[in-house]
Amino acid sequence: MERVPVLKIGDILLVSIQIDMSDQTAVTLQEDLAERIVATGCHGVIIDITALDIVDSFVGRMLSTIASISKVLDAETVVVGMRPAVAITLVELGLSLNGIRTALNVERGMELIAATRDDDLGYDDTPGDVESATAATSP
Amino acid sequence: MALTADGGNRLVELLTGHGERVVQRWTEVVAASLRGRLSLAELRLQVQELHASMINAGGAGLADLQVPAAGELRAVLADLSRSRARQSFTATETAVSIYALKDVLVELAETDGAELSLRDVVDFTGLVDRMGLLTFETYVQTREGLIADQAEQLLELSTPVVKIWDGVVAVPLVGTLDSARAQVVMERLLQTLVDTGSPYAIIDITGVPAVDTQVAQHILKTVVAARLMGADCIISGIRPQIAQTIVALGIEFGDIATKASLADALRHVLRLTGVEASRRHPRREA
C-alpha cells in the first residue's frame, strides 16, 4: 500500500502529498503524523499539496482533520503550494478550508510557523523587545 | 422559384456570349456604388473572376449553389466578401457587387435583344439573390471573427499584474469586469502569486466604472482563492460613489482590507511586513 512520507526538518514535520489519496492512505497518514508529532515533539506541520491536481471535499476534510489532530498535540498546521486552478475550483464549489492556515510555498510556510511560535512564546520577551527597539531608533 | 439546370445553361450561354460586355457593365455599376474606394483595375479583376467562376459552375452548379460543381463560385464569393469585410465596406456595399449583375442582365435583355423569357429573368434574379445571401453570411462571419479577435486582444491587454514591492503585486483593473475578464484576472493574479512567491496582492479598482453585486462577487472570489493559497488581498481605489453603491447594495467585504487609494494599500502592506521585521530583528541579535 502507498504511504505518504513524513519528514522532519528542524522543528517542523513536512508532509508532501504526491499520490491520489484514498480513505486508507488518509487514515494511515493521520496515524503516522500523530505518532511522529508525539515522538519528535515538533511544533509545526507543513502539508505540501503542490503535486495535487484535484482537491475535493474528501481531501479538504482530511486536511481539516489533520489540522485538528495537530492542534490537539500543540502543533501548528500550514497547507502550502495550492495551485491556482485548485484554489479557483474550491472557491467555485464554495468549499472553504476552515481552520487551516495556508502559505504560498514551503519556505513561506516555515516562516509563518516560526512567526507564530515567536508570537506564542514571546510575550515574556516583549518588554525586552520594545526596549531594544526604542534603543535602536533613539540616536 | 428555383433556377432549373436548363435555365442555368441559358444563363451560362448568355454570360459566355456577351462576356466582355457583361464584365464591362458589371464593373461600371459596382464602381459607381463604391465611389472610387477600390481601383477600377482591381474591381475589374474581381468581376472577371466572378464571371469566370459562374461560367465554370455550369447549368447544374447555378441551379443549386450547394453542389460540388459550384464549389469554385462559392469560394470566389466568400473571398470577395471577406476582403470587403476586412476593408471595412458596409454590408450593402458588399452585396451590391453581386446584385449589380441583375441590372446588367436586364440591360442585356433590353438593348442587345438577348432572348429572355420573363421566367428566365425571374429565375436569374433569384440566383443572384442567393449568391448575395451567401456573401452576407461570409461577411457576417468575417466580422464576427474580427470582433472575437479584438475581444481576446483586449482581454490580453487590459489585465496586467505588476510587482510594486518585494512580495507585493498589484492588479490595476480597468474597464467593466464581466465573468470572462474576472476569470482571466483571477487566474493571472493567482499564477503571479505562485511565480513570484508574493504573500500580498493589491486589487485596485480605480478604473472600474461601476461595482454591482456581480463584480463584487468576482472580486470576493478572487480574494478567497488567494487566501486559500496563502496570500492576502487588499482592495484599493474605491471611489466615493462606489463606496456608496457598495453600502446601498449591502455588499459585505467582511474582514478584507479596503483602502481608498493604492498608496494607502501599499502603506498598509508595508506596515504589516515592517512590524514583523522590527519584531523579529532584535530577537536575532539577542
Automatic annotation (TrEMBL), chain A:
Coiled coil: none annotated. SUPFAM superfamilies: SpoIIaa-like. InterPro entries: Bact_StressResp_Reg, STAS_dom, STAS_dom_sf. Gene3D superfamilies: STAS domain. Pfam families: STAS. Residues 2-113 form the STAS domain. This is RsbT antagonist protein RsbS. It comes from Micromonospora matsumotoense.
From TrEMBL, chain B:
It comes from the Bacteria. Residues 158-269 form the STAS domain. Coiled coil: none annotated. The lineage of its organism: Bacteria, Bacillati, Actinomycetota, Actinomycetes, Micromonosporales. Signal peptide: none annotated. The keyword Phosphoprotein applies. It holds the Pfam family STAS. Keywords: Phosphoprotein. InterPro entries: Bact_StressResp_Reg, RsbRD_N_dom, STAS_dom, STAS_dom_sf. PANTHER family: RSBT ANTAGONIST PROTEIN RSBS-RELATED, RSBT CO-ANTAGONIST PROTEIN RSBRC. This is RsbT co-antagonist protein RsbR.
